[in-house]
Amino acid sequence: MKITKICCIGAGYVGGPTMAVIAQKCPHIQVTVVDLNEQRIADWNDPNPENIPIYEPGLSEIVAEARGRNLFFSTDVDKAIDEAQMIFISVNTPTKTYGKGKGMAADLKYIELCARQIARVAKQNKIVVEKSTLPVRTAEAIKSILDNTGNGVQFQILSNPEFLAEGTAVTDLLNPDRILIGGDTTQEGEEAINSLVEVYSNWVRRDQILTTNVWSSELSKLTANAFLAQRISSINAMSELCEKTGADVNEVAKAIGMDSRIGPKFLRASVGFGGSCFQKDILNLVYIAKSYGLNEVADYWEQVIIMNDHQKRRFSSKIVQTLYNTVADKKITFLGWAFKKDTNDTRESAAIYVADDLINEQAKISVFDPKVSKNKMLSDLDYLETRSSEDNRDAISVFDNAYDACKGAHAIAILTEWDEFTTYDWKKIYDSMHKPAFIFDGRNILNAKQLESIGFVYRGIGS
Ligand code: NAD
Ligand code: UGA
């Protein structure tokens, strides 16, 4: 099937950027991204491309180029499904918050709704592509829903997981390490795989496009995230040992990273990983392993999450201990709230949990983040349901520049590794703070020697 019309259900952090890049690289394909969230679609259609709902370096330029030409954002899901030959499902698959598998399994209700809607609307044969991250064997459930419509329409299900990281989504999409496409090993399955290979071949080398069976593709995505998160928990575990022994985790990371079998990437010790996916996907993996009775496998991967939770809690405890065992009514300034730099996404950000701990200790938190709004920060805290919204509002003040946020603070905590934090006039900040002035660098991005020479008490991770 030669693809000329694509629909993507879900205009989020994956659907939006992924489809923008497909539209840019394939001007002959009409790409329509649909979502139930009217505000999100209105924001994607904002006449000023700088106002699109997701901040990613380079994304607004691509949207400006393709939008209205062959890239469209709409709330008319039925129409887009009806017209497309290929439908990407890119909706959220959060951890279940109810029923069986609560707190572990992936909630597939949005996926199932999409499958039912496609089944209801489709009048011609379609290729349905799983873009969302899904438990292994989800394609089976989707196929069962689609094949039982009784209207004779044929569906092929492909798995095409997304490996982009936020903050570098555009470069990751333009230069992917690999594209993974899983499909049925039947002739129809292979034809469907080839149709999708052809789409990506417009800008990705053929030898970087890997085709597998559906189950390998689904499981590879969970495995990749588990391995990546495991590296962070591994180096974070060593960071605690470094603090006890006088070793420096940055030096240890460099030393082991030069072993070509280990490699240098993803060895930055931190306050703990965040983001919408690592925790959710590992919990899902743990749940799947348990459901097959593989308890040792489940325990092995669960430890990655346990270590990460420990690292976040350890950071807040260290702040309390260092500030003479009380932070009550002290002003602690957070620089950064996003879960990593160059994104406005805060899902599962370590900052939320550290703030929650410190508010429990009656600290007053001031925050500056270059891209995250006050409303977002407050809704992140409210979501934890630790205390009332009013109490969260009393405990947090949000500033639009770092200098004002740090004025009169007892301590500063770096929660996100935004580049601009390294360029500040730290002497000016020091002069405006209570003394002794503490800095807790949860990202090891600041120059400890320079700060100590100014007079700061500096505490990094793992040194
Ligand atoms: P998101 O929450 O940003 O976006 C999902 C969108 O789907 C929302 O806007 C929601 O309104 C919409 N939606 C839900 N149900 C719908 C329906 N029935 N019809 C129409 N729209 C519907 O989520 P995301 O971060 O883009 O993640 C999507 C999937 O991609 C998840 O499975 C995630 O694990 C995976 N993933 C995410 C990333 C990432 O960096 N965020 C990277 C790789 C994979
Ligand atoms: C991650 C993966 O890197 C992507 O390949 C995957 O597609 C995506 O999850 C997903 O499935 O959602 P993302 O979460 O956007 O991408 O960002 P990462 O760069 O992986 O960072 C995740 C978290 O780990 C951040 O909080 C980051 O600060 C932290 N991190 C990362 C460290 O603490 N140390 C490191 O060395 C690297």
Summarize it.
This protein is of the alpha/beta class. It has 18 helices and 14 strands. The chain is globular and about 75 Å long.
* Count of individual beta strands: 14
Mean pLDDT: 97
Q: Taking strands numbered 1, 2, ... along the chain, how are they ordered across the largest sheet?
A: 3-2-1-4-5-6
Quickly count the helices: 18
| Estimated structural class | alpha/beta
Helix content: 40-55%
Based on CA atoms alone, the radius of gyration comes out at 24 Å
- List of distinct ligands in this structure: nicotinamide-adenine-dinucleotide, uridine-5'-diphosphate-glucuronic acid
Given the C-alpha coordinates, what overall shape results? Answer: globular
The largest sheet, given as strand count, sense and whether it forms a barrel, is: 6 strands, parallel
Distance between the termini: 57 Å
Oligomeric state: single chain
Unreliable spans: none
Note the beta-strand portion.
5-15%
Q: Helices, strands, pairings?
A:
Elements (H helix, E strand, L loop, with lengths): L4 E5 L5 H11 L4 E5 L3 H7 L14 H8 L4 E4 L2 H7 L2 E4 L19 H13 L4 E5 L7 H10 L7 E5 L9 H6 L4 E5 L3 H14 L8 E5 H32 L3 H9 L20 H14 L3 H28 L8 E5 L14 H11 L3 E5 L5 H11 L4 H7 E3 L3 H5 L4 E4 L11 H6 L6 E4 L6 H7 L2 E3 L4
Parallel strand pairs: 1-2, 1-4, 2-3, 4-5, 5-6, 7-8, 9-10, 9-12, 10-11, 12-13, 13-14
Helix pairs in contact: 1-3, 5-6, 9-11, 9-12, 11-12, 12-13, 13-14
Bound molecules: nicotinamide-adenine-dinucleotide (NAD) and uridine-5'-diphosphate-glucuronic acid.
Keywords: NAD, Oxidoreductase
Protein name: UDP-glucose 6-dehydrogenase
EC number: 1.1.1.22
